[in-house]
Amino acid sequence: MSLQRFYQLFSMPSNKKKKSIYKCLIVHPPIHSPYQQKPIRVTMPLPLKVLFFLSLVLGSSFHFIASTASSRSATAPVGVTEVEALLLWKASLDKESQSTLSSWFGTRPCTWVGIRCGSFGSITHLNLSSSGLKGKLEGLNFSLFPNLTHIDLSINSLHGNIPSQIGHLPKLVYLNFSFNYLHGFIPNKIELLRSLSKLDMSNNNFTGSIPISIGNLKILYVLYLYNNKLSGFIPQGIGLLRSLSDLKLSHNSFTGPIPASIGNLINLSVLYLNNNKLSGLIPQEIGLLRSLSNLGLSENNFTGSIPASIGILSNLSYLFLLNNNLSGSIPEEMNGLRNLKSLQLTNNKFVGSLPHNICLGGLLTNFTVANNNFTGRIPKTLKNCTNLYRVRLDGNQFFGNITEDFGIYPKLNYIDLSNNQFYGELSWKWGECHNLKNMKISKNNISGEIPAALGMMTQLQRLDLSFNYLTGEIPKELGRLTSLMDLSLQGNQLSGNIPLKTGMLHDLQTLNLAANNLTGSLSKEIENCLKLQFLNLSLNRFVGTIPLEIGDLHSLENIDLSQNLLMGEIPPQLGNLLMLETVNLSHNMLFGSIPSTFENGLSSLTTVNVSFNQLEGPIPNIKAFHEASCFALQSNKGLCGNTTCLKACVPISSRKGLIWIIIPPLGSLLLLLILIIGLFALCRRCKSKNKTSEEKNCEQIFGTSGNFGKRFYQDIIEATDEFNSNYCIGTGGHGHVYKAVLSSGQVVAVKKLHLSEDGELTNVKAFKKEVVALTNIRHRNIVKLHGFCPHAKHPFLVYEFIEKGSLKVILNDEKQAMELDWVKRLNVVKGVAHALAYMHHDCSPPIIHRDISSNNILLDSKFEAHVSDFGTAKFLKSNSSSLTSLAIAGTLGYMAPELAYTMKVNEKCDVYSFGMLTLEIMRGNHPGDLILALFSSSSSSLASSSTSSPITHHTLLSDVVDQRLRPPRSRVAEGVVSTVQLAFACLHANPQYRPTMQTISSALTTRWPPLAKSFSLIELGELIAH
To answer: Which PANTHER family does this entry report, sorted A to Z (predicted)?
Structure first.
C-alpha cells in the first residue's frame, strides 16, 4: 500500500476509515478466477502489525496539524482538493485557454500562473485577468478554496452563471468578474461575503434585480454593476452600505425613483446612475453626500427641477443631467460650486437664465446646456473661463453680442452656438483659439464679414457658419486650415469667387456653399480635395462649365450644382465617381447628351435630377434614371428613354438604313389602310342610325390612349354588370369606384360620377377640356386618367387600376397598417409631395387638386403612393350637403380654414391638406383632435374634456404617432421627426407662411438632419414653428 493511499485513508471519517483499512488487508482473487468465491483472509506477522500501527498514528497526526494550520473550517486536505478543483476547471475550458494555463499541472499550485498562496500553501489569490479564457464559470467549485481573499477573472470570455458556492468564501476581500459574458441572476449568496470590500461585476449580461440583502456587505466601499441588463428598483438596503465611496449602476434598466436612503452614504464620492429608466424627482437627500465629486444621472426619465441642495456639494466636480425631462430654472445655489469642471444639462426642459457665477472657480472645462429653453445672456464668468474645452449652447434662446460676450479660450476644442439669437460680428479673437477643432455658429443673426483671422485656427476640422447674414467674400486665409473636413457656409449673402486656396484643403469631406451670391467659374483646384464626399454649390450664380477635374474626386457621394448658370456638356469624367449616390444638375443651361460613362460607373447612383436644361438623347440605362420622377427629367430639349416620363428613343442609323426599303411597301399599306378606314366608317355610319337615343349620349370617350373609345363603353358596362355594387371597391365624395376587367384582360378602375339634381353633369364642356389635358399628364405618383364618358345615365372616368386601394382603408385595417411600416409611410409622404409639386410648379397652367385626403391616395403592390382625382374636383358634384358651392371642393377635415371666408382656392389649400394627410399617415388616424388641441384657442377645454391624456405642446411625439408600430430608430426616426415638422409648417393659419410643395418635395429628398435628442424625448412644441 502506498503512502498516498494511507494518506487518503487517514483523511476519511473514522467510521469509513476502519472499513477501508479492513478492505486493504483482504486479498481479492483475480476477477477471471472461477474457483474462489470468497475473499482470503491473510494473517499478518507481529512486526508488520507494529509497523502498520505506527504508520497509522504518524499519518493521522500529520493530517491534524496540516488541517489546523490551513483553516479551522476546512474539511478537505490542503493542496489536493484545491489542485483537483483547478485542474477540473481547466479541463472544462477551450483548448486555447488550456494552453494559456499550461503551467497548471502537478500538485504544486503555488507556482502556477495566476495563483498565489498563503504561508501554509493554501491558495489565497486567483488572478487571471486578461488571459483570454473561454468557458464557463460553473466548472470552478469555489467552496473548495476556504482561504481565498482575491479573485480577478476580468476581461475574459467567460459565460454562464455565477455558481452559488461563491458564498462559501468567508475571507474574500476582492471580487472582479467584469468584462465577460456572464449572465443569469446575481446570486443571493453574495450576502455571505461579509469581508468583501470591492465587488465588480460590470460589463456582463446579468439580469434580474440587485439582491435585497446586499446591504449586509457592511465594509464594501466599491460596487460596480454597470453595463449589464439588470432591472427592477434600486433596493432601499443600498443605504446600509455606509462605507461605500464608489457606486456605479449605469447602463442597465433600473426603474422607479432613487431611494431616499441614498442620503446615508456619507462617504460616497462617485455616484453614476445614468442610462437607466429611473423616474421621479431627484431626491433632496443627494445634498447630504458632502463627499460627492461625481454625479451622473443622465439618460433617465427624471422630472421636476434640480434640488437646491446640490448647491451645497462643495466638492462636486462633475454633474451630468443630460437627456431627462427636468424642468424649471437652475438654482442660484449652484453659483457656489467652485470646483465644478463639467456641467452637462443638454436635452431637458430648463428655462430661465444660467447662473452668472457658474465658472467662478475657473475650473470649468465642459459646459453643455444644448436643446433646452434657456433665455437671456450667457453667464458673465464664461467670458474669462479660459480652461474651457467643450461648449454647447445650441438649441436655446440665448441672445447677446457675440463680439462682446465671448473671450479667448486657448484650450477650447469644441463650440456650438447654433440655433440661438446671437447677433453682432465674428471677432478676430476666435483666431486665438488655436486648439479649436469644431466651430458651429449656424442659424443666428451674425452679420459682417468672415474674419481672415479664422485662418489661424490650424487645428480646425469643422466650420459651420450657415444660415446667418454674413456678407463679403470667403477669405482666402481659410485655405490655411489644412485639417478642415467640413466647411458649411450656406444660407448667407456671401459674394465673389470661391478662393483658389480652397484646393489646399486636402482633408475636406463636406463643402456646402449653397444659397449665397457667389459668382465666377468653378475652380479646377477642387481636384486636390480627394476626400470630398458632399459638394453643394446650388442656388448661386456660377457660370462656365462643370470642371472635368470633379471626375477625380472618387470619394464623392453627393453633388448638387443646381440653380446656377452653368453651360456646356456634362463631363464624361463624372462617370468615374463610383461612390456617387445623388446628383442634381437641374436648372442650369447644360446641353448635349448625358454621357454614356454613367452606365458603366455610376452603379451606386440612387437619385438624379437633370431637369430644366437643354439636354437631349437617351438617358443612361441604369436604375437611378429609370426610377427617376418625371419632375427630375422634365423641361429638356429632347431626352428619351425607356421610362413613362419620356418618349422612346429611335436610333438614327436604323432610320437612314431602312428608309428606302420601307417606302415602297409603306405606300401600298397606306392605300389599303385608307380603303379599310373608308369601309369601316361606312359601316359605322350605318350602325349609328340604328342606335338608341341612350347610346347617342356617349358619342366618344375622351382621352389620348388608343385603347379607349366608344367601343369600350359596352365593355365597361358588361364588366361591372351595369355598375353592380358587387364590383364596387370604393366610395368617394364624387362617386363610386368599380373594378372592371375588360374583355382584353386589362384591369381598370371606373369612377361612376354623381349627377346634379337635374340629372346632368355640371359644366360638361369645361370638364371635357380639362380631362383631355389631364390624360396627357404622366407622373409615377399620379394615377393615370385614361379618359371620360359623358353618358347621360352612366357618366364615368376611366383610371389606371392601383392594386392595394386607398390609403384610408389600409390605415383602418390593423394588419395592413402594421405592414405599412415607417419606411413605407415616409415614402408615401414623399410620393404625394412629388406629385403635388409636379402639378403645382411644372404644369402650365398649374393644376390644383382641391381634395387631397387619404381616400384619394392609392397604394400599389409596392406601397408606392399614387394621387387620384387630380384636377377634376372643381367640376364634380359632391354628394355631401355641407358643400354647396361648385367653386369649393374638398373633404371636411382636410380643407384649409381660409376657405370658410375667402372662397378662393389656390396651391396653398393643397399644401394645408397635404399637412393634414401627412399627420394622418404618421398617426394612423385623422389628426383632427391633435390639431384642435395644439392650435385652437379652446384647446385647453377640449383637452380636459377628453378621457385620454390632454394633448399640449409638451406632449411627446412618441405618444401621438401610430402606436401599432414599434418606435422608429436611427435614420428612420430622423425622417419621422423632419416629416412631422414639415406637416406642422403646412398647417400655418396664414397661407403665405406655408411652404410651397416644391420646397416640401425638395426637403423630403435631402438627407435628414440628425436628432438633437432621443426620439422618445422630442415634444410636439419643438416641431411647431412659432
So the answer is: LRR RECEPTOR-LIKE SERINE/THREONINE-PROTEIN KINASE-RELATED, MDIS1-INTERACTING RECEPTOR LIKE KINASE 2-LIKE
